[in-house]
Amino acid sequence: MIPTSPLIGIIEDEVSIRKFLRTSLQAEGFSVLEAASAREWIVLAKKDVPDVLIIDLGLPDRDGKDLIKEIRSSSMIPIIILSARDQEKEKIAALDAGADDYLTKPFSMAELFARLRVALRHRQQAEKSTPEIPAIYEYDGVRVDLVTRRVFREGNEVKLTKLEFKLLELMIHQSGRVLTHRWLLKEIWGPHQLQEVHHLRVFVANLRKKLERDTARPSIILTETGIGYRLADSSFLSPPS
Amino acid sequence: MMERPNPNELLAEVSAADGQRVRGKLKVYFGYAAGVGKTYAMLESARRLQAEGADLVVGYVEPHDRPETEALLEGLEALPPLLVPHRGVSVREFDLDAALVRRPQVLLVDELAHSNARELRHAKRWQDVEELLDAGIDVWTTCNVQHIESLNDVVAQISGIVMRETVPDDFFARAQEVALIDLPPEDLLDRLKQGKVYLPEEAERALRGFFKKGTLTALREMALRRTAERIHVDVERARQIRGDQRSWATRESLLVCVGPSPTSANVIRSAKRLARSMQAELVAVHVENAGSKQLDSAERAQLLANLKLATRLGAETVTLAGIDPVAETLEYAQRRNVTKIIIGKSKPASGWFGHKDSLSDRLIRDSGHIDVVVVRGVGESLPPVSLSLPPQSSSLAAWLFTAATLVFCTIASWVWHFFDFTEANLVMTYLAGVVFISFRFGLWPSVVASVAAVLLFDVFFTLPHYTVAVHDSQYLVTFAVMLVVALSIVALSNRVKSQANLSKRNERRTEALYRLSRKLNGIMGSEFLIAEAERTVAQVFGGEVAILLPKDGRLLPVFGHEASFVSNPNEIAVAEWVLHHDQIAGAGTDTLPAAQGLYCPLSSPHQTVGVLAIRHRDVEELVLPEPRSLLEAFTTMIALALERDRLTLDNQAAQVKAETEELRSTLLASISHDIRTPLAVIAGASSSLMQEQTRPIDPKTRQDLLATMMEESDRLTRLVDNLLRLTQLSSGRVQIEKEWHPLEEVIGSALRAVDSLLVGREVCIHLPDGLPMGHFDAILIHQLLVNLLQNAARYTPEGSPIEINGANEGEITVIEVADRGPGISPSELETVFQTFERGRAQRSDSRGSGLGLAICSVIAKVHGGKISARTRDAGGTVFRLQLPGGGAPPPRESPDEEAEDP
């Protein structure tokens, strides 16, 4: 399913981070295309088309958000952004501008690989003429059958409301990816429905009550503080023992 | 001019060598009549200078169609004249703005005394020249002796022609160079006959009278004397600069009395000539009593003109207020150490009983050691109007009430008479009536009432009744006494009333000033200051008031004022001129008088901070010396208040900056240890791993080293995160975004962030069912909880349990993090939240660099809540966070529909 040697584009001005990413990614079997600035990238991008793009938000020559918008205007290539701890606003802006996921520095390679796998999988899905939607989502004792629209926890059926199911279904389609509050609100209530974020939080809290073992330590619907939610990726993350 | 240089001026002159360079030099080609060749001489020198390579431009030269002049103009760079439409025709004028843009080294501007068309910026050309000099351009110009302000009246006497175009003496005196262009009168008359002298057609006949040998000789003498005086001054000045120690006699100080009569102007000019010849300073004084408000408009205009004349002549103008002009003038003169008082001859004032001493007589009598010089005013010598008692406006109603009062008195007297009261009672009744009338209805009704009272008493109550005649001649004495008493009462009460009016007006102004100062002192923020200032100025002076401040390089009204006059770009241009020149201008002044508003600079000692604009129906009233000085007091006060406000802001900013700086440096000093330790560990461990090839490392050690590196990196990351957060929070740049959050969500995300630290511990979370949501900034509270949990994980024994409790107490959201560690000593429970405070029990419970808890405390504070620590009963510490609610929390139940059917 995954190409033998996916090409990863990296736009990052720090030499040491580029070096560390290159070494680690190559060791894992990825090919790497590097640029130190947005300008350099525009030249490189004319020759090769990478499968996933990693963009640092603190580029010297270009606002990361603008760059993402520009890339999005012509390509649906998955974009993962790297940001510093104090860049919450920029991070959200970049996600709203079309970035698919983010990593906060410092990050471990395990996290990066997980993000890359999710991104590559979604890219493949998108490239297929008829996207192959998984019929069953199964993770940490929860099983969701998207065909019969039934939900089970530890084998017992759980009753969800229509909106709860809609929310869960939406998250399953994007499992492993970060989903911003704004995106979720728009998907559930429509673009013109201006619900407050706390409505979404109430829904998620109720959904967690029905699915999670411990709502204060959720394992399925994870909180990305200040940004949104992420559904645990069933295909690649193994449930904690 | 024979101004004796005083030491300060000299000092200024010596030290301001560059000042001279900055300001342009003025050279005047000075003559005694048209046709002596001033323009010609000026152009000749110009050609010479140009030949030497100077940057010289002809700004404006009257063409006059003289071939010699035109020949000289050839080859000189000239600015095109400005064509100004004026009453249907196009008038050629000097283009000041073009000259300022061109900025030549030397500019030629003919006819210094010329009056500009009304549409231009300045009323007079000499004001244009002043601006050129200010801009650092040297100016050459021409001027005739009859145009010098203080000689104006003398010239009028000699020639019979009054010159309307004049140049202030002061301005002329400041010329660095005066070149006298002389031509014997005979030669001038010859040239006139040959038609070589240009005279404007309309004035030709009048000017013919001017060109008589006698007149010309007199004018020539004046011009020569004037130039000689200048040379004398130059010599004096030079001697002073060389350090000649010759001592000067004490400076003379002259005071001239100014009234509203036209002759006063002549007196002022005479005084100026005297002052110049004595090298004395001149003060022009006008005494305003309550009556001068009632001057008719022509007299007011005359008074204003006289005061303006005095200002133009370089005199200081002062307006005094009081009933007795003589006493006020003398008192002021003594205060100012005036040595001579100059006054015009005045007719004796008419008093109630025959003639009173004239003003000049009284001055002479009471002046003591001050000399009084009485000079003749030309023409009819009117007594100064300001001396007479105020003519009260007498309306019909006042007369009717007067009549009614008298009728009432008569009826009352009739009653007394009927009861056979003595006549003294009747007289008293009438006098009471007169007192009432004089207080209520002013001068004339009360004077008439006094006479009428006597007549009524005579007609009704003396024998024979109903005739004027009296039998008993004793009554004549009664009548006389009655009349005298009545008139005295009238005079006294009138004086009291005038004084009262006067002091009321002064009081009102003083009070306004005091009120403004008090209000401005109590206000912070320039917008509030300006709103208050505009209100107060409008209250005191009337009219429409706006304050303009420079913003982004442009001058704008602080408050919208869309519909007001200040939104007009032309008005803004005037305001900008005022701001840059720090001078009053606009309606009522000589500069840019065509503007709708009067513009006063708001000048503090350091700079001009803005402009005050007033549009007033009687703008001329505002520029009278007295209101103007009040206005200036107001503007200075406003300027100072604005500056004070700005300084306060700057101070605050500086203080915040200093505190931030201090925080930063303390921070750096105290955390350098915390940074170095993990770095040392990482560097050491990695160097060990690097040596693996030479000296093998067993897999377990290797794993340990890697784990240590990882751990120390985490520690460093946390430290940097905390530092970042702390600087952000303490700089005030962080905007907190409160939203409603379920507590379990933020607790969950914090627990996930410290997951690896909590391995092997039991974490108990107690959240009651249906706990309402909290209102906070999730990112900050997440960080706070992470810090508390990290501390709990690091400073309590491995494997000991951690408890997290959520609760709701009224509107307050409470989150507690409790551990079973060694606890914090009671004395440190408070201080543990201060920056860099670390628990004393270093071994057992040293909570990081002290940054973690300090940040917790700041985060709680920015939420309006608080964090506290207490010791647990069975050992350990509880950290308790309390956050205020944000009103009613939204419901936790989803307003959703029925559960979906399978």
What does this 3D model show about the protein?
The complex is a heterodimer of chains A (241) and B (902). Chain A has eight helices and twelve strands. Chain A has 241 residues and is an alpha/beta fold. In chain A, helix 1 links the parallel strand 1 and strand 2 (31-35). The longest helix of chain A is centred in the middle third of the chain and has 19 residues, at 109-127. Residues 236-241 of chain A have low confidence and may be disordered. Chain B is 50% helix and 15% strand. In chain B, helix 12 (263-277) packs parallel to helix 13 (297-312) and helix 19 (474-521) packs parallel to helix 23. In chain B, strand 12, helix 15 and strand 13 form a beta-alpha-beta unit. The N and C termini of chain B lie far apart (112 Å). Chain B is of the alpha/beta class and 902 residues long. In chain B, strands 3-2-6-7-1-8 form a six-stranded parallel β-sheet, sandwiched between helices. Classes of the chains: A alpha/beta (241), B alpha/beta (902). Chain A binds chain B through residues 85-86, 88, 106, 148-150, 157, 159-165, 196-199, 201-206, 208, 214-218, 222-226, and chain B through 713, 717, 720-721, 724-725, 728, 739-742, 744-749, 751-752, 763, 765, 767, 773, 778-779, 782, 804, 890-894, 896-900, 902.
User: What percentage of residues of chain B falls in helices of 4 or more residues?
Assistant: 40-55%
Biggest interface, chains and residue tallies: A-B, 36 and 38 residues
In total, how many beta strands of chain A? 12
How much of the residues of chain A is beta strand, in percent?
15-25%
Principal-axis shape of chain A: globular
Helix content class of chain A = 25-40%
Low-confidence stretches of chain A: 236-241
> Numbering strands along the chain, what is their spatial order in the largest sheet of chain A?
2-1-3-4-5
- Rg calculated over all Cα atoms of chain A: 19 Å
Oligomer: heterodimer
Q: How many separate helices of chain A?
A: 8
Q: Indicate the mean pLDDT of chain A.
A: 86
